[in-house]
Amino acid sequence: MTLIHAGDDPRGRHASSTGEGFTRLVLLTVLGAAVPGTGLIAAGRRALGWTVLLPVLALLGAAAAVLFTGRLVPLLRSVVFDSTAMLVVAAGAVVVALMWCLVIVASHASLRRSPGVGRLSRAQRLGSLVLVTALMAVVVAPSATTARYAMANHDLLKNLFGSESSAGNGPDTGAENPWANVPRVTVLMLGADTGMDRVGTRPDTIMVASIDTKTGDSTLLSLPRQLEDVPFPPGSKAAKQWPTACKEDGAGGCMLNAVYLFGTLHPELFGGTANGNDPGVEATKEAVATATGLQIDYYAMVDLEGFEQLVDAMGGMTLNVPRDIPIGGGTNLETGKKYPITGWIKKGQGQELTGYEALWFARSREGSDNDDRMARQQCVISAAVKQYDAVQLAAKFPALAAAAEKNIQTDIPAKELNAFVTLGEIVKGGDMRALPFTKANISTGDPDYGQLRAMVADALRPAPAPTAAPSASASPSASSSVNPAPSASADPKEAVDPTATC
User: Fold this and answer.
1) Could you say which DSSP state residue 116 is in?
2) Of 227, 282, 448, 481, which sits with the fewest C-beta atoms within 10 Å of its C-beta?
């Protein structure tokens, strides 16, 4: 018979009373969540704990090796621009989150049954529930964000970007410098102004961006939509049909903004409509290439109403507004009646504009002509290039992707996106110049296309070095939002800083 003396604890010398070991339980639960497997090992479930911990350590080691060898960015880019990989990432994020949550719960339950933890009080049990829930939330939140970003990117890659390149001088996607053998890339940028009072799609904004892949210097050419007698390649079927077809379509000459409709009505001349080909865009590419003497490598077309969503997704845009710009106005092409002016974008330096305001800054016709509109559109493009960086793009990506998927059309293939990211980094460090074709340098009603091509060739040459350095007393600009006023003596045939006009 065993005698139990007064004062002896019948549970044994090492038993814990209510509430003891709670601090240890909390610390080990947190450790087990931060480094999966360690909590199970501490609770005595060593085999299961090491089964969880060893893959985690192997994954961390592989990540460290990729990071320290400088292969992280190339690896991330190869994954981000692969739609199949995005599906794997999304599914993997969900699976990892579920497994991690199971490990947190199992670790905490095992630790509560371990010898070092006694019976918990009601408050401690509630605290344990809150702790485990909070730890699972910490795991689930980034996993859910990763899955959301991955699916948004997957949809964007599948629905927006093509699979094959149509460019004759595309980048070498397998090379360290994909643009090493491509001296210049030229992109046609179209703003589609489709409205209830318009017949079909007629690009309201027509620009060409030509980029020096070595320096990142870019030249932005703005072509007036009312440019008449637009040429097609001599001897082509389009060149033979265009004059008659465009004059049948409407009075006023064979204007550039009518080329898209011409291609749509005659798809057989421009590759048909199979495999997502847009004959209206192809017709515009041919006409612009012939008019400018440039090879058009790619195009991007943005619906102008969708432009508003894109700017809002990026948190707005900062612009210099040279004068009060009306919101609304203009003439209804069907009825001939004037639209009302519903508001104003006020004059001022560094104005923070919403997408709606930035759209009207670019498109407003009331009280201005097409030359003025082109200058404002160049300001918007320049501001977008300079203001939006990779961090902003990443932070706003889901909303940006959704807006882009609905409102942008392009023939840039998904497999070349990695190369275009590299090119974008080069462009950030280069200079941007703009040459708008206006009444100051060309007659839109009777244009001399030989002269236009000569101006384009001159604009693509490197910018001349400044003739004089700024004086030492001049204070540097604190913000890119403050720009010099345009020079009255500037040659309208020369490319200039686009921000000089706004």
Assistant:
1) T
2) 448
